[in-house]
Amino acid sequence: MNILACDIGGTRIKLGLCNTAGDITEYQEYATNAIRGGVQLIERVMELMSVYSKYEAIAVSTAGQVHPVDGSIRYANPNIPNYTGVQVKSILEERFHKPVMVENDVNAAALGEAWVGAGHSFNDFICLTFGTGIGGAIVIERKIYKGFKGSAGEFGHMLMHPVIRSTDTMWDSMYENLASTTALVKKAQEIDSHITSGKDFFAKIDVGGAALETLLHSWVCEVSRGIATLIHIFNPPAVIVGGGIMEQEWLVSRISDCTRELLLDSFKHTEIIPARLGNKAGLIGAASLFLFHQDHVKKNVAKK
Predict the structure, then answer these.
(1) Which domain holds residue 239?
(2) Which residues 6+ apart lie within 8 Å of 72 measured at CB?
(3) Distances (CA, A) of 301 to 27, 72, 294, 297
(4) Are 132 and 272 contained in the same domain?
(5) Which residue of 84, 142, 214, 228 has the lowest C-beta tally within 10 Å?
(6) What is the rounded CA–CA span in Å between residue 304 and residue 302?
(7) pTM for this prediction
(8) What secondary structure letter does DSSP report for 90?
(9) Helix (H) or strand (E) holding 301
(10) What is the pLDDT of residues 235-252, one digit of tens each?
């Protein structure tokens, strides 16, 4: 069985065929051009999908909160304008006449890691991805825990410090405003205006002097506070951290050491480990919905 898997992100669209072993073939990657808006984005996705053949189903991993029943976008942040409300599942089913499943990108990545990645040996774990923001997923008995309305795992919106409201919908003290890659880069630009990405930051950390090292220490502490909070709540055997910035094993080790200092003794056995599947985790996890998780919408998830 081949599944056409698609990962829709704020900056990139990824496509490939996934087989029953979790292997991705015919992989392609394209710019999202998200500024054009959600409807045009899905039109672009369908255009890119049309070159594929010999598949039995379509699996979509996408940015935004996904309705667990109808596969529509319940909420998307302004990175993809007018994406909220787009009926992704029904649009694709009508166009391609194939069964379609749609899942949030971080949930899909967690399912991929559970299948053939860093979570393979764990029944339960927490997954965090660090990038533009911070995404989260809760895996219990190798399934995504959805919560009351299907939106559990918005760890990036945890309030970490004395609450200061900056706009009607945003809080300065949100976890992702303190510990995302974006947060690190924003602070780094106050030291060196040429740093525009996490990659730039870590390329300069060894030669950037005490200021960059002090910033890194502060950022690691922010990351660790959030992880420690989640460990104290869920008591998982593992926390898997992903995103391009976490591909550096020394950084994950440093975060693990810092987190462990914040934990009660009975919680110190939780492993903090890097994700293994990189930018294909969402594709693999979305495909796994058809292979293992067709009952992934739990009965206790409230419908509209």
Answers:
(1) 121-276
(2) 66, 85, 86, 87, 88, 89, 90
(3) 34, 15, 15, 7
(4) yes
(5) 214
(6) 7
(7) 0.89
(8) H
(9) none
(10) 999 999 999 899 999 999
